[in-house]
Write a structure and sequence with these properties.
The structure holds two protein chains of two kinds. By secondary structure, chain A is mainly α. Chain A folds into two domains: 67 residues, no CATH class; 103 residues, no CATH class. Chain A is built from five helices and five strands. By secondary structure, chain B is an alpha+beta fold. Chain B folds into four domains: 196 residues, ATPase, nucleotide binding domain (Nucleotidyltransferase, domain 5, 2-Layer Sandwich), CATH 3.30.420.40; 179 residues, ATPase, nucleotide binding domain (Nucleotidyltransferase, domain 5, 2-Layer Sandwich), CATH 3.30.420; 84 residues, ATPase, substrate binding domain, subdomain 4 (Actin, Chain A, domain 4, Alpha-Beta Complex); 145 residues, no CATH class. Classes of the chains: A mainly alpha, B alpha+beta.
Chain lengths: 210, 643
């Protein structure tokens, strides 16, 4: 098959027919979805204001928008699959790691001029503090409990997010292979609750001793 | 008594709630009384841990922080049940207070039982600048209870705490005034169905509850259980005798120890100072904040080292305060040997039972601080307790304390004509408190006590196990609630002390000599809840309209004095002077100011577990309440003025 982007389709072939059909279908779906929403929107104004014209106007407007939506909808679909977590809890975790383990202080420092001894002392701060944070807020467990570097069997219907197959990936489940890493899974995470207007972006306050 | 029962039946509290109001931590536990199968559970307590951050912990730190107006946004002072909490208590108070100690109130409970101050006076945090808002030990206690109450009500909206059966634990060594104040704090936040329970008893109840009725197989008649409770700030001791009544085993609390301000916090501090000295030898001087951080680090390291004897050393790092972590971080290590020397040998020295704490006379100035134990040797304190209670057994009626000893009161003659190694021999030991979670310390303590027993040709004491050392007191307290409804065995004991008022002897004045004091027993040892006695024989003339103060004494060793017993001599250790008590007779019932009314005294132990003293007019039976906690005591207000 060759691609030639300069070429203009000469005939209305099966492929174009399909494309046309699907775009009409999408349009219909979009219109039908939107119109239900519109109906809901209309209901309230009708109850309160007894003017009929205005809701009608709105319908017209929505119909105009629909054409644009045909384009938008594709973008929306991509976005909905990649959910972005709220940054607040991530910043809260950073703040806890900074408070207990001085993580940000350590990572932001230039280590080149320091001896391994000094880095070791700082690493202990991170380790003891970080461990405390993990113990306090996260319940971690291994995904596989077998010893690493032993042969294990991955049964059919495994969760590919939990178990990643590497190397000579061929054939069908059950798979036999060497367990390289046991994996980690957080079975629960309980971060402290925050006040409503709490600014989570303050990772560590500046401290002034009087 | 009948009234109490009918009211409980009407409202039928669903839960029996136990509150361990500790010196450093509070725990609330509960049990559903309507469900026979229900087990005691501990309430997770939501609390602020940092401004704007709320976490759930099983314990509420007994700390109160008085923030500066610009220290926190009002929006970051929130709790699940309130956006304007009355006070900052719990983890946040401890965290903020570690850097700003002048605004931190700690050990309010120890102040509550400190007779040298007026406990209703707002003077805490002691010694801080005038600008810091002060509260009284009573108010601080109230605030801790209020937080617990709100946490409970938030978790159980349909069963408010004020309608549940609540048991609050107090140290066995609390004097009547401190018990009264604890009850008052609880009443002030609206707790209606309230009982007080001694902490070591609560631990024993928890052991009974956990043993699932097997406890009867583990102890037998004649056994004496020594309960040792070493918490964060205090050490509490009690002796419980196993007796028999109608063929059933019963428990009888026969003695309690003194209030010893010595606990786990002292140990962390001791380790931090040891490391400070070690670093000083290397030429490194520590700042106060570094010592504080080190105390923190030592707490964790201590636990690791005490639980694993093979572990040789744990590194201790004190990070710099600034954002430059490297180069400024201080690193040292805590070795197994140091822990052994400082904690095991320092706090639990292997001593003979005749070795007792060294008591130095304190200067008058120390009155303003808490009377911390001067001798850190907990084993010495236990030895002193066991020796003092040598005659506590109910069988030993011919106790030498009753013997007339003309030299008893004179210095140098001693009070004990009995042989020096005489002490009460426990046959079982129950440990409680976070410190004894460490197997090394618990074993050392057990060994030491057993050595005393072997030296005295007695059998070794058996260790009773099966309690969670951090939560046992609260759990036992909620279990006690169901015991009071008739399920399970009840520990009997009544009041652990006999009480006396001091009266001046009627004798001609001798120049240069204060008139000798006599003591009149107003409440005998072991008076049980709900009982009352009249004090016969003595009439006092009280003046209407004027407060009258009495000297007040307690004794944990004179167990055979009846109400009305007159003592004209006693050994200095026998009677301990307590804060003065006071009665004010208002002008009423046709009496005029300045009139002298002859009164007799009567005492009763309330259902709550507090002692109640009354003055009764001899002519018409009018009654006045005698206050334990003197409100306007001249000496105590002076103390607080200076503080």
């Amino acid at each position: 098959m060759t691609f030639d982007l300069q070429m203009i389709p000469q005939t209305f072939d099966m492929l174009h027919a399909g494309l046309a059909a699907s775009s009409v279908l999408l349009l219909l779906i979009a219109v039908s979805r939107k119109s239900t929403v519109v109906e809901k929107v209309i209901e309230k104004p009708v109850e309160k204001i007894v003017e009929v014209e205005k809701p009608v106007e709105k319908i017209v407007e929505v119909e105009k928008v629909v054409e644009v939506e045909k384009v938008i909808e594709k973008i929306v679909e991509v976005e909905s699959k990649l959910a972005t977590a709220s940054t607040d809890s991530a910043m809260q975790l950073l703040s806890i790691m900074q408070q207990e383990a001085r993580l940000i202080d350590f990572l932001k420092e230039d280590l080149t001029s320091f001896s391994d001894d000094e880095v070791g002392a700082a690493a202990r701060v991170i380790h003891t503090g970080g461990q405390k944070v993990l113990n306090d807020y996260v319940t971690l467990e291994h995904i596989r409990t077998e010893d690493e570097e032993t042969r294990i069997t991955v049964a059919e219907g495994f969760n590919p997010q939990e178990i990643r197959l590497t190397g000579n990936v061929t054939g069908q489940a059950p798979f036999n292979g060497t367990l390289v890493h046991k994996g980690w899974k957080a079975s629960s995470m309980n971060l402290p609750k925050l006040a409503e207007n709490y600014d989570a972006s303050v990772i560590a306050p500046a401290e002034v001793e009087l | 008594m009948e009234n109490v029962q009918t009211t409980t039946e009407q409202q039928a509290p669903k839960f029996s709630v136990g509150i361990d109001l500790g010196t450093t931590h509070c725990v609330l536990s509960y049990v559903d009384t309507t469900n026979e199968e229900a087990r005691v559970e501990v309430l997770p307590i939501q609390q602020l841990t940092a401004p704007g951050t709320v976490e759930t912990r099983s314990q509420l730190g007994s700390f109160l922080y008085q923030p500066h107006e610009h220290e926190m946004n009002p929006s970051s002072r929130v709790l699940p049940w309130s956006s304007e909490p009355t006070a900052l208590v719990g983890a946040i108070a401890r965290n903020l207070g570690s850097k700003t100690p002048i605004r931190l109130i700690a050990s309010a409970k120890s102040w509550l039982c400190h007779g040298g101050v007026n406990r209703r006076d707002a003077f805490l945090p002691a010694g801080s600048p005038e600008e810091v808002e002060k509260v009284s030990p009573l108010r601080a206690t109230e605030l801790y209870l209020e937080h617990l109450k709100n946490a409970w009500d938030h978790a159980n909206p349909s069963y408010p705490l004020t309608e549940q059966d609540v048991t609050i634990t107090v140290p066995a060594s609390f004097d009547p005034a401190a018990r009264d104040l604890t009850a008052e704090a609880a009443r002030n936040i609206g707790l209606a169905h309230l009982t007080l329970l001694e902490e070591p008893q609560a631990a024993l109840y928890n052991w009974i509850d956990n043993s699932n009725d097997k406890w009867r197989d583990e102890v037998s008649v004649g056994d004496i259980v020594l309960v040792v409770d070493i918490g964060g700030g205090t050490t509490d001791l009690s002796l419980v005798e196993v007796t028999e009544e109608d063929g059933n085993l019963t428990l009888n609390r026969i003695a309690v120890g003194e209030h010893i301000l010595l606990g786990g916090d002292n140990m962390d501090l001791a380790l931090a100072y040891r490391l400070k000295m070690k670093l000083a030898q290397d030429g490194k001087e520590l700042q106060p904040w570094q010592v504080q951080a080190m105390t923190h680090a030592c707490r964790d390291a201590k636990e690791a080292l005490l639980n694993d004897a093979d572990l040789q050393a744990v590194p201790i790092v004190v990070p710099s305060r600034g954002s430059k972590l490297l180069g400024a971080t201080l690193k040292t290590e805590l070795t197994q040997q140091e822990v052994q020397q400082t904690l095991v040998d320092g706090f639990f020295p292997k001593v003979a039972v005749t070795e007792h704490p060294v008591q130095r006379n304190r200067g008058a100035l120390t009155q303003m601080g808490l009377p911390y134990a001067q001798d850190a040797g907990i084993t010495r304190h236990i030895a002193a307790f066991l020796t003092k209670q040598a005659n506590a057994l109910s069988g030993n009626d011919a106790s030498p304390a009753q013997e007339y000893n003309p030299f008893a009161g004179m210095p140098g003659m001693g009070d004990a004509p009995t042989q020096s190694a005489d002490f009460i021999k426990p046959t079982a030991i129950l440990f409680n408190g976070g410190v004894l979670k460490s197997t090394l310390l618990a074993n050392r303590l057990e060994e030491t006590i057993n050595e005393w027993l072997i030296d005295a040709d007695s059998e070794m004491a058996q260790r009773l196990s099966g309690v969670d050392l951090d939560l046992a007191v609260a759990s036992g307290a909620s279990y006690y609630g169901s015991v009071r409804r008739g399920h399970g065995v009840r520990i009997r004991g009544g009041i652990a002390s006999s009480y006396y008022v001091g009266i001046e002897s009627a004798m001609p004045a001798i120049p240069g000599m204060a008139p000798p004091m006599e003591a009149l027993c107003v409440a005998p040892f072991g008076m049980e809840e709900g009982s009352s006695v009249d004090v016969p024989s003595q009439e006092f003339g009280l003046i209407i309209g004027q407060p009258v103060n009495f000297q007040f004494f307690g004794s944990t060793t004179r167990r055979d004095d009846l109400a009305g017993t007159h003592l004209d001599h006693w050994a200095p250790e026998e009677l301990e002077e307590l804060p003065e008590i006071q009665v004010t007779l208002p002008v009423s019932e046709g009496r005029r100011e300045g009139e002298v009314v002859p009164v007799t005294l009567a005492s009763r132990v309330t259902e709550l577990g507090t002692l109640y003293l009354e003055a009764i007019a001899a002519d018409n039976g009018q009654k006045w309440h005698v206050e334990f906690d003197v409100r306007e005591d001249a000496s105590s207000s002076e103390t607080t003025d200076q503080a």
